[in-house]
Batch of 3 targets.
Target 1
Amino acid sequence: MLATALLLLHAVLAVGSLWSASPTFDEVSHLPAGLAIVATGDVWLNPQHPPLVKELAGLAAGTLRPRLPLAGAAYRAGDQWGFGREVLYLAGNDPMALVRAGRLPVVAMSLLAAVVCFVWGRKRYGDVGGLLALALYAGSPTILAHATLVTTDVPATLGMLATFWLWWRATRGTARTEVARATDGADPGGGPPSPPVDLRSSLLPWVLCGVALGVALASKFSALLLPPMMLACDMIANGRRDLRRRLVGYAVTGVAAIVVVQASYLSLAAPLRYLHDTGLVYGTTSRAYLYYLAGAFAPRFPHYFLVATAVKATPAELLAMAGALVAAWLRRERWRDDLYLWLPALGWFAAMSWLAVDIGVRYVLPAWAMLFVLAGALAPELLRRTRLLARPGRLGPALLVALAVTQVGEAAFSFPGYISYANRLAGGRAHLTRWLDDSNVDWGQSFYRLPGWLAQRGIDHARVLPMGSATVPMQASGVRLEGMLASDWGAPRPGAYVISAHQLVRGLERARSGTPTDWLRRYEPTDTFDGSMFLYVFPPPGSTAGGPDAGATMPPRTE
């Protein structure tokens, strides 16, 4: 009952959030590319990412029968961004209807990932452990942020979770919970490994694992890191025992994964195409681009994802992640089974810190999810240890309930602006630009709701500088929006300005060359919207503050 309620909550929050979120930066290329694949059967646009997520989104959005300019110059030239803008903004389609439909398959994949968290946690740590893992996943604002977008991060999280869960089942060969194994006298993970699945009677666990691996590979190229991690987990936990039979399982898993990848490319040449396209992942990234972290700009920050996690994870998530690793240490006698959680989590985090670009905590979400499951180990440990400290044994359950309720509460109170979430330890979303930029703060998700927000403040005209390709000018809710001019940075005309948090951070970088774009340092904003867009109001010369026409005076910052 509780598990069903948490899954329903996750679905309601995700769908409610996506319904009002305008097309984000990457969706402008991903969704139209998926529509083109469904319409033509040709995986042509956006080769920097595998096609599975785009195809699922394209199938869902394609039910609306959108107009696709497939004969246009942008599509023929392989210009994914130009084609995306044509489909969403120039071809007469309703962009919000398309993105809403296209996002629903990603929500479904996030729900499946939540189910895996619960099932795996329950198998390992009992009912309470499974519920804790599910509450952490279902109530994570950052998970919810990316469960509502046509992007690859949450699908990759599903693929990694399902792969290692099924790999554990296949190589460790147990379907019993830890509680059951403890009560029947078996050593839950510390003694000899559990009997392996008899490959002569069932290849199903290996096939299912291969399908899950194929989903991960067909969602994100970085999933190529999973096979060596899988091999490491199996060899460390099981050694050479029954290696010949396990090698057959390896082959079955690999074949199943290749079939899924090949099917996603709709081509017999898929394996070679897949390997070729992995070289394009960061092909459009400028080597001169400087990334941002905590007020500094640099070509690389080795500690980027540690800081991003500290800022973007909820307090409950930070406690659970730390507690998960502590619980793994306390349960050293069970290390062979827990290895399948903490080794991939730490390995993925380390690999992303080395390989991924420093633009979003979303790259390490698979590691977060693995640690959420491992955090389920806190349940039996707390229940066992606090029973010795508290006479009625209520301290442990109270701590677990507090952790779960706090997590779910963060999700509810952060609705619907999940992308710009930051925990209170980092100052909350109002101060997120002190730490991060890009998809951590603003990906263009708030533009659709902006006119209504301005209308509530009596502003009927504003100049905007959004993130991405949101169209201006536009008229909605009685508010007219027009583009901000480059000259406005140094000599702002009287009136209201709404600027993306990401654009303001990049303004700090451009200001180092002498341009007056450092508004984050120069002016105090009148207000912020979702933590992702900043409102500045400049009154006419000689006027006083007060009223929607005059706005508020803009004193320079003094710190």
Target 2
Amino acid sequence: MAKKKNDKGGGLILLLILVLGLAIIATPLVMVFGTLFSVFSYLKIRSKIKGSYSDFWLTTSEKSDFKTVSVKLVEAIENIEKAEKIGDKEGLARNKDGSFALRGNRGKEVQGFINTNLSVKNKYLPIYQNLKSLPQERWLKFRKIYTRFYSFLISSLAWLITTGILISKEFSDFSYGVNAIIRFPVDLVKMLFSARTGAEYENPDTLLQWKVLLISAGICLVIYLIVLFASRASAKKVSPIPPEVNMDNLNKY
């Protein structure tokens, strides 16, 4: 019974070591590949930025759609409001949901007119809201690409610099230290295998490998988070967040 408990405890420790080892191996790989994958999206969108509200403003076609939708929407809303006033002025009865009762011909006429314009309003309101916020949505997409790219890039550089400094400090020979870090995944597998099977295995660099990679991974992740949030403010300096679209500013940008 005691042996089974010890086996379970030992297996859990090995699992934790494996997870932690994979995490510190994956950290620089994720940062580097994140940089490579995000650089193309960043360069593509960055080349179009001039540093004004026009960067993410509506296109000519979208402006035309916004005008058309706005006119139809305003007209429908005004018609609904006029019909409501007329119905109230004429003393038409209302249902519990606020609509006019259909008991009389006049009630049917007024409510039918309201329903027709409600259909128009419900049709064009989502389109209007989408076009109104479209420049800001585009800017938010740019900010996401911008912050991710610089977060991945700077944290990758931070990992390289930190690892280089630690190798120089902890290993007497820099080239040997680099090789020790590179072979860490293989050494990790050998260590876990020997611990599980009881096979003999010795690696004098184990503690130094873990020390260098743990510290480098920790600093890398901290730098990533710091840059991720700090670069949000700098994104506004590259291109200001545009206002919501309305009829007054539609053709300003």
Target 3
Amino acid sequence: MAVEAARVGPRAERAWGAALLVGAGVAGASVLSLATAGLSMALAVAGVGLALFLGVVLADYRVGVLALPFAILLSPDLGGGSLVHLRITDLLLPVVLAGWMLRRVAVGEPLVRTPVNGLVMVLLVAGLVSTSLGVLRGTIHPLSLGAVFLLSRVEYLLIFFLAVQAARSLPWGRRLAGALLWGFAVTAAVGLYQHAAFGPQYIVSGVRANERATFAAVLVFLLMMAAGMAVTLRAWWQRLALCALALAAAVPLLYTYSRGAYVALAAGLLFLGLRRSRGVLLVLAVLVVFSSVLLPLEIRSRISSIAVVVGAPEQTYQSWSARLGAWSVVGHQILSHPLLGYGMGALPLGWIDNEFLKEAYYGGILGLALYAAVLWGIWRTASRVAHRAPQLWARAVAWGFLAGYVALLVQSLSGTTLTAIRSAEIFWFAAGLVAGLGSREGPDTSPEERV
């Protein structure tokens, strides 16, 4: 392993440096072209730069993996049909995969083994079987919907795999963590801009107008990642920067008006307070006690409606009543095909606002059990990294991921957070990063890297 690292290290550093130079050069040339020659010339320069970037990715796929958080979080829809909306991620992933294949042939990069590799493959096969049976039974309409859902799961797991492979090298794992945080920072900035530009009545939804719940899930995950890292790292400036990032995410999160995200945020903070830092519990208590003073009226009224669900469910709001009614109908339908379900895509996501009920409907008891096993495997892997990784920064990333994981699981009780494209992709990227850090297959680190 050390010999291989020594052999490919300079090449990787050259690819990394080339990517930075290409990006800076193309950005500067595009701006200059836009200012002097107009939009058409700027697009032409950007196209040449894109071709050069893709060449760098083919030379070292890890450069492409670094770009994935930005593509996932910031890509608008690029068009497509009524069922499929292409994003930059869909175009970048095949190139990154090709780059990994070339690297595997060139230097013999091994497949990283994680506790969930086998379970993931079985889950994919089970999804294929249940969807095929759904097509034969006629429970999937249109048929292309089943293919879209199945291919989306393949894409999520491919993101996981590529992140694992890249993060097996600790220096690249650190770069991936940095890329994730920078992607989060730009995402928070987008939310802050929307709130500042359009006012408190505007529902913040990120780069796509109808993705309020998904954007809220991304912001919750962002905030909890930053908070988990802040309570683990020791350097004051790192803690200060991460707290600033968390606060930057908190403002647009409030103005998504997502009740599920509010509950998820409280659950994530409670987890951090119980498992990592009692100071977080104090912060949570202060937020609860002084929320009537600190929060605007429209946010307070939104939060108060959550209490109605617990204290007086007969007076609950319409969207919650609709969820309960849909869950009841879906629960009874599951009894007709309890083992393998109706197949992926048998109902649109908006009809089943519960991640686990959705898995039971699509894949039956078998599919739900496999899905739970994969999630448990990811949790165990992240927990091991959080407690045993020799590098403090790696433990901080793992603790942040675990806090975000708890928040997303809670939010998944009232939504399909781990299936909606943008929140699912960033979750699987972060999961792959943490699993790669825990693979123990990267090169040895110096004593300086262990702090």
